[in-house]
Hints:
Elements: E1 4-5, E2 27-31, E3 41-42, E4 44-48, E5 52-53, E6 56-59, E7 65-69, E8 78-79, E9 85-87, E10 96-97, E11 105-106
Antiparallel strand pairs: 1-11, 2-4, 3-10, 4-9, 5-8, 6-7, 6-11
Amino acid sequence: LKGVAMPDGGASVTEPPLSETPGRISLEMWADRPRAAVGEVVSVTVRSNTDCYLTVINVDAGGSGTVVFPNDFEADNLLRAGQPRRVPGEDAPYHLKRKEPGRELLL
């Protein structure tokens, strides 16, 4: 599992290659922007080489974790093999915002 760090440092914004190692689950996650300022909205895209169920957790600068997906607005967390899934979805009634300076991590 690769996490996407959204610190003052940066994150990948290009779609990474999906590993094709037989018998192993490969899960790739990338952010829509390299850096997010406090208050900016961000999204991540996730892709797997096999069908699986996805949970996305935000760990804030203080080390507290919160499940941000699935949630009441997007309860279906089935991730289909090879099909990228954006969190939050295009029509989702919520946003992910960077809330404070320092390092935030999406797992």
